[in-house]
Write a structure and sequence with these properties.
Blueprint lengths: L1 E4 L11 H7 L13 H12 L11 E6 L5 H7 L10 E8 L4 H18 L3 E2 L8 H8 L5 E10 L7 H12 L5 H4 E2 L9 H4 L3 H8 L10 E7 L2 E6 L3 H4 L7 H19 L5 E5 L9 E7 L1
Parallel strand pairs: 6-7
Antiparallel strand pairs: 1-9, 2-3, 3-5, 4-5, 7-8, 8-10, 9-10
Helix pairs in contact: 1-4, 4-11, 9-11
Amino acid sequence: MKEYQMQENQIIEEFNAFEAIKERISVRSYSTRPVEETLHRDLKNYMETVGSGPFGTKPRFKMLDLKPLDKKELRGLGTYGFIKGAHLYILGAVKDTTCALEELGFCLEKIILKATSLGLGTCWLGGTFKRAAFARKMNLEAGELLPAITPVGHPADETSPANRLTRLAAKSKKRRPWTELFFGPGGNTPLTAKEAGPYHDPLEAVRLGPSTSNRQPWRVIMEETGKFHLFLKENKIYNRIMGKIRLQRLDMGVAMCHFAMVAREQNLPGSWKVEAGAPAHSGMQYIATWSG
């Protein structure tokens, strides 16, 4: 029985999603070179037409240009402290409903991958920016949350201190191996790449996904070929410190986005559903099931 189901046409893209997933890194230092008008237009058009998340909720996005702001306003935004030189930001808001954070994570990651395909840098910011100040710029409506934002722009020279540290971190913070993330029926035996069959690349796309503090809280159990249950391995203290905005639920939206985009790109059938009588597994929270 299906409680929610994603529409098939929401994840067909004109860029190579798997390549963008492999190329994307977090960029913290940006060039003074402005984003060209054509790139700005392409990204804004994509942002405005990205549609709803996997369960039908449509987040609201806004592209904010900081250049017209005075120094006092800029200080008030407080973007992370180590984001350097970024003038454009994408802000994402969503109604505070069931699965809202997964929806926002799914849709914002699609926009980030589009930016990557255009040669632009981004950086997920979920916990360390002045939320109230950005909420005012977003004209946040009653019942909306502002879970995350991202700067957008041309990365600074790779020799800049911030980007050297970013690249060093990208090499040192290796992703968890398959044996810790993906499991066969019952969830007790690690899933091998051979057993994953044609779904190897969608699962690898999940493994490569960005997550808050690189905690990689997603776990996937393959019930049968083409049917996968997604779970959250939650760090409760870390995840709940910000009240309603639970950063690891954003991470789950990213995982769902990566799996869905690559599966569709490779003509693999299926969509995300929240099943009635959801499967349970000790120490984990059920999120959704991918099946045809």
